[in-house]
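As a warm-up, study this chain.
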Amino acid sequence: MSGEGLARLFIGVGFVWVVIVLAVGLLGGFDKPSAYWKFLTEATGAGWLPHVYLVLTLFVVPVGMLTFLRDILTDPVALWVKWAAPGAFLAMYAFFLLAAMPDVGRPLFVGIESTISPVASPASAAASMGSTGSWLVRFAVAFVVLAGVPGIIGAVVGLVTGSKAGVRRH
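Now compare it with the structure written out below.
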C-alpha cells in the first residue's frame, strides 16, 4: 500500500473512530468514554485494546485530519472553505480529545478557550467543567471563532478578489 493509500485509509478509520468516541461521549458524559473503554478491555480480557485506542486517538485521527486538510487546501475549493478548515479541524480535534482522553484533551480545550476569551482564566474554565450540554456550547463557541470568523473573512476576500472555485482536474 502506498503512502497516499495509507493516508486515505487513515481518513476513513479516523472518521469512524471520532464518531464512535463522540457518540459514546455524548451518551455517557465526557468523563465516561475512558471508563467505558477500560470496562470493555477488562470485560474482553484484551490487553491490547488500550494500545489500539491510544494509536487511533493520537496517530490515526491526526494523520487522517491532516491529509484531508491538505486535500482541502490544495484542491480548487472556495476561499472561505480553505480559510475555515484549519480552525474547524483544530476545534473538532480538541473536542474529540476531550472525549477520548480527558487528561490530554481538557488542557488543550481549556487552552483554546483561554486564547479565544482572555478574560476567562484557565483555572476557572477547568473548575467549571459542567455537563455535556455545557461542553457542547463551549465547543460551538470555539468552532465559531476558530472556523466561522476565518470563513467569513475568506468569503469577503473571495468576493472582493473575484476568486472562484475551479473544477478539479485529474
